[in-house]
Fold:
Amino acid sequence: MSRLLHPSIASPQRSDLRSVFILGLSAVVWFVAYNAIQPLANWLTYDLFRLPAGSHLGESVAFFLYDVPKILLLLSGMIFLITVVRSFFSPEQTRAFLGGKREGVGNVMAAALGVVTPFCSCSAVPLFIGFVESGIPLGVTFSFLVAAPLINEVALVMLFGLFGWKVAALYVLSGLIIAVLAGVVIGRLKLERYVADFVWQIKTGHGGGVDGKPTWTQRFEMAWQSTREIVGKVWLYVVIGIAVGAGIHGYVPESALVAIMGKNAWWSVPAAVLLGVPLYSNAAGIMPVVSALMEKGASLGTVLAFMMAVVGLSLPEMIILRRVLRPQLIAIFIGILTVAIIATGYLFNLVM
Structure:
């Protein structure tokens, strides 16, 4: 009997070992590729294409060649890992963890998760999809979507170094409040009908190993299938979004931003938000502009409103979100977040 059972038990084990080895090798390749993007983008732009360094076109092309593979690699890697992790938890367990809490508690937990998640606005989209398909309420999911890019740990450290712990703490607190309130409002509006149909149709699935649980091989197969499916549906939107951001990155000079927002006028906060929307950067990338604005005399609330608009309301992010959300929900999301950021900017200008 033991001889008959042994092959059936050993075979899944050998398959799992082979799958883990392949995954480890793939991870090494992914890591090498990710770290090669920056020098490769610079080589293509300035050596192969011979575009002048520092020129508008050169900056735009280098930005595009760097960000497209970077975001696609992050998307693929995150979707794969998220799917593997989620294979250990049923949708019911995930829903109970975040969705089963009373209103507000789940939003706070999701926003806190976003704070410790080092993703930019564009790469937070696959997590948004994963939350929705796991049955987590839409409002709770949006609290994460807002907090993930809005509160950046690198920006937090830089703010602490430049302006002290009070400003850094206010940055975190304001971002959390915006994320929680935005999620609560969207949750109460019951806007699930404005999420793309394919998001609801994606299923994690559970295979059956010897003990009824998926084997590692099955988990990796599910992750690979989910990665291909989601990336296949959003990659074009990623490319378009980054192309828009690259053009703005190369052709909108810092001096123009300083000239408009360096004035301490009543319209400086909404102007800062409107200027921040079409730009594309993460919180850390916008810090040099933030520092320049502060040196030119811009008030703290105006600067923080600008930074939050850049990372939380970026046009490229909205283009990518269009693949999973209908225009009505995107418009509501933009409206709620814009009002919250402007109010935060005015509040900081009053108290600081």
About this structure: The chain has one domain: 10-352. Residues 72 and 235 are 7 Å apart (CA to CA).
